[in-house]
Design goal:
Length: 107
């Protein structure tokens, strides 16, 4: 399943403001229903986390983890903390899956 992207600044800010917040030591995730058939995904990865290639690699990994969960009808924003840049794929997967479980998004 392909994930949509949250691209409009107004939508992005609204999700950050009104979405439910879940976090661990590596990521903060905001989740909100969107009334659509697909899930949409947005990221906040500040430049202080590292160079663009490292930030993009992290985004690709997170996008794939969420895509495999087959989530529908939600907007999800993932905010990475500095510690997330040190994780390997299995660490990222464990962290994101744990947060999504707490959010009630997946089992």
């Amino acid at each position: 399943m392909k994930l949509g992207r949250i691209s409009k600044e107004k939508e992005f800010k609204e999700i950050l403001k009104k979405g439910k917040r879940f976090e661990d030591g590596f990521f903060i995730v905001r989740v909100r229903e969107n009334g659509l058939e697909e899930a949409r995904l947005g990221f906040v990865l500040p430049k202080k986390l590292g160079k663009a290639t490292r930030r993009n690699k992290l985004k690709r990994r997170i996008r794939e983890i969420i895509r495999l969960k087959d989530i529908k009808g939600l907007d999800i924003i993932v905010i990475a903390k500095r510690e997330a840049m040190e994780l390997d794929f299995s660490g990222i997967k464990g962290s994101i899956e744990g947060i999504l479980r707490r959010a009630g998004v997946c089992s």
